[in-house]
């Protein structure tokens, strides 16, 4: 099966990420989806099965393990607040009566409310792309919440990957 990258994003049960202009691989509908990973020159270096809810978090260049799968809102991932706290060394507090989540470090704090896109970071209010949510008793926060505490955060939608530089 030859796939021309300029015209095709997905064929059958195989989804693709950015890579070379064309690649050759054998179709295998029995095994399901495959994740194709390419280096910057477009060379295929990994082919592995992935689930429909595939998502990856990197802390620096290391793959991080999440306790909870992210949830998706308007095409954006929301990470469990407990996972963000663990990855970035935050203390997190939940106020059940107001549905507010507070995260603190020794030098900064952030407050968000489930259902509201507003982020209060050290007294400065900004609007996030999506509001925090909750599911099965777990609070989830958008990437902007994590980026407030990180040196840098890069969301790579085509790879379903976020890279966080603490």
Describe the structure.
This protein is mainly beta. It contains two helices and 19 strands. It has helices at 81-88, 143-149; strands at residues 2-4, 10-11, 14-15, 22-24, 34-38, 44-49, 56-59, 62-64, 71-73, 76-80, 91-95, 100-104, 109-113, 118-121, 124-127, 133-135, 138-142, 152-156, 161-165. The strands form six sheets. Strands 11-12-13-14-15 form a five-stranded antiparallel β-sheet, covered by helices on one side. Strands 8-7-19-18 form a four-stranded mixed β-sheet, covered by helices on one side.
Which terms would index this structure?
mainly beta; 5-stranded antiparallel sheet; 4-stranded mixed sheet; globular
Provide the spatial order of strands within the biggest beta sheet.
11-12-13-14-15
Spatial shape: globular
Instruction: Give the rounded overall mean pLDDT.
Output: 79
Series of H and E elements: EEEEEEEEEEHEEEEEEEHEE
Q: Given the structure, what is the number of helices?
A: 2
Total strands: the figure is 19
Q: Kindly, what is the distance between the CA atoms of the first and last residues, rounded to a whole number of angstroms? A: 42 Å
Helicity, in percent? under 10%
Rg estimate, integer Å: 18 Å
* Structure class: mainly beta
Quote the beta fraction. Answer: over 45%
């Amino acid at each position: 099966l030859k796939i021309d990258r300029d015209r095709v994003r997905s064929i059958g049960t195989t989804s693709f990420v950015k890579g070379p202009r064309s690649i050759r691989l054998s179709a295998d509908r029995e095994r399901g989806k495959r994740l194709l990973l390419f280096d910057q020159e477009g060379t295929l270096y990994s082919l592995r099965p992935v689930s429909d809810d595939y998502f990856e978090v990197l802390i620096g260049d290391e793959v991080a393990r999440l306790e909870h799968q992210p949830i998706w809102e308007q095409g954006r991932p929301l990470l469990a607040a407990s996972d963000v706290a663990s990855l970035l060394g935050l203390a997190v507090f939940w106020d059940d009566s107001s549905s507010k989540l507070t995260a603190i470090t020794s030098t900064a704090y952030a407050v968000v409310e489930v259902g509201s896109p507003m982020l209060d970071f050290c007294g400065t209010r900004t609007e996030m792309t999506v509001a925090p949510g909750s599911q099965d008793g777990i609070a989830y926060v958008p990437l902007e919440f994590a980026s407030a505490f990180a040196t840098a955060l890069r969301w790579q939608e085509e790879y379903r990957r976020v890279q966080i530089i603490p």
